[in-house]
Specification:
This protein is mainly alpha-helical. The protein has two helices and no strands.
């Protein structure tokens, strides 16, 4: 065998394809990172929106409870007069 083919050779030169592939890899990593950041921002906004909706819902529930309590108190304070029941059951057919 040849002595030149038996040994590994590492060249100090860098080819154009290596530079292009590193640039494309860096660009892809940058684009992926920005997409991840957009997703995180969208999730944060959705969480804030849900929090705002829950607080608004609790506010409406509180108002509804207050109105219900006021209505219940007004109904219980009024004296209801129910018509007297008829004692004779002659109007019913058996």
């Amino acid at each position: 065998m040849n002595t030149q083919t038996e040994h590994w050779h590492l060249s100090k030169s860098v080819s154009v394809t290596q530079i292009v592939s590193i640039i494309l890899l860096a660009a892809g990593l940058f684009i992926w990172g920005s997409d991840v950041e957009k997703g995180i921002t969208a999730n944060a906004q959705a969480i804030q929106h849900e929090s705002d909706l829950r607080s608004l819902e609790q506010k409406h529930i509180g108002k509804f409870k207050d109105e219900t309590l006021i209505n219940r108190r007004s109904v219980s304070s009024e004296k209801w007069s129910f018509p007297q029941q008829r004692q004779d059951n002659s109007s019913f057919v058996k």
